[in-house]
Amino acid sequence: MNTTRTTPLPPPPAGSLTAHRLALxxxxxxIAVARTAPPALRSVAExxxxxxxxVPANLAEGAGRTGRDRRHHxxxxxxxxxxxxxxxxxxxxxxxxxxxVEALHLFDRVRAMTWRLLHPGP
Length: 122
Prior knowledge:
Layout: H1 16-35, H2 42-63, H3 67-92, H4 98-118
């Protein structure tokens, strides 16, 4: 009988799980917004989908890594959150609805948390 033994990963640093949870929430809203984009903005909507999905994915992958590799994934998550914010603003224009405002707020919180993961203070 074959059994697979796995070693549990060390717990992620404080704050990363919260950032991941918020990133998932923001991505779900962003995906819903992208689905309603008009055909003329389809390419922006597709970029939003990729950027929004990248944020929680890279936070999760970074939490499972160590050292420079961990920081690399968290830097990508930070940049993707900036990109998703930009695409959301492009899709919704000057009068975003309440759910878009919530996604923008969540991506901002994720960026702040990710910044602290990348730049831990004394």
